[in-house]
């Protein structure tokens, strides 16, 4: 048996060794009894569209594969807005779900550049309106612009609905758009 490095301990070991007592409003599982919900604050809406048909290759004979697409769009919000340019190099799972891997830039009306990264899942679901991609992504931003520098420390999530490519409409569409929210830690 190989001994674990001294830095790796079970949580109970840390509690016992350091005589840790959680604050009065935190239960034994580590959750606040006053509020257990993370706050999500709306940041912006995005309308992103492919410039050309995305390319999907399935090199191993199954449904899984790799894709490439690029596009542009608009970002509308009180705290973040402008025009967007982006590239997506997602993976496709064997069940058809897409795993977006998007990098792009938002140029604000005053000329600031805000880089963004989006990763997550687009899972196709049957609805009364037809098949729609349920899109849930994590979003991170980086900028040197003083007015948007607070985004460098933010963790955001995106919810979206995407219509799949179809005959006569080869590019995926975001008919309901995408909404981005800033996650606000309620445990602090």
CATH architecture: Beta Barrel
Helical segment count: 1
- The count of strands amounts to 11
The stretches of 5 or more residues where confidence is low (pLDDT under 50) are 1-15
In round numbers, the mean pLDDT is 83
Under CATH, the topology can be stated as Porin
At the first level of CATH, the class is Mainly Beta
Report the end-to-end length measured between terminal Cα atoms. 40 Å
Query: What number of structural domains do the residues give?
Result: 1
Order of helices and strands: HEEEEEEEEEEE
Strand content: over 45%
Cα Rg: 21 Å
Strand order of the largest sheet: 1-3-4-7-8-9-10-11
Shape, principal axes of CA atoms: globular
Structural class computed from helices and strand pairing: mainly beta
Helix content: under 10%
Largest sheet: 8 strands, antiparallel, barrel
Descriptive terms for the model:
188 residues; mainly beta
Structure description:
- The protein has 188 residues and is mainly beta.
- It has one domain (38-184): Beta Barrel (Porin), CATH 2.40.160.20.
- Helix content is 4%, strand content 46%.
- It is built from 1 helix and 11 strands, in the order αβββββββββββ.
- It has one helix at residues 11-18; strands at residues 39-50, 55-57, 65-76, 82-88, 91-92, 98-99, 101-107, 113-127, 130-142, 156-162, 178-184.
- The protein has an 8-stranded antiparallel β-barrel.
- Strand 2 (55-57) and strand 3 (65-76) form a beta hairpin.
- The radius of gyration is 21 Å and the shape is globular.
């Amino acid at each position: 048996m190989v001994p674990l490095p001294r830095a790796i301990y079970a949580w109970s070991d840390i509690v016992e060794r350091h005589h840790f007592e959680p604050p009065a409003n935190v239960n034994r599982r580590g959750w606040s009894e006053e509020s257990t919900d993370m706050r999500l604050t709306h940041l912006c809406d995005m309308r992103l569209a492919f410039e050309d048909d995305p390319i999907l290759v399935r090199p191993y004979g199954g449904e899984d594969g790799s894709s490439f697409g690029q596009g542009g769009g608009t970002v509308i919000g009180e705290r973040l807005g402008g025009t967007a340019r982006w590239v997506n190099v997602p993976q496709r799972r064997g069940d058809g779900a897409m795993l977006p891997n998007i990098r792009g830039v938002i140029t604000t009306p005053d000329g600031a550049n805000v880089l963004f990264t989006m990763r997550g899942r687009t899972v196709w679901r049957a609805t009364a309106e037809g098949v729609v991609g349920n899109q849930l992504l994590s979003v991170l931003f980086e900028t040197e612009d003083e007015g948007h520098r607070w985004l460098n420390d933010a963790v955001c999530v995106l919810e979206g609905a995407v219509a799949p490519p179809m005959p006569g409409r080869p590019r995926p569409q975001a008919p309901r758009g995408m909404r981005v929210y800033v996650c606000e830690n309620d445990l602090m």
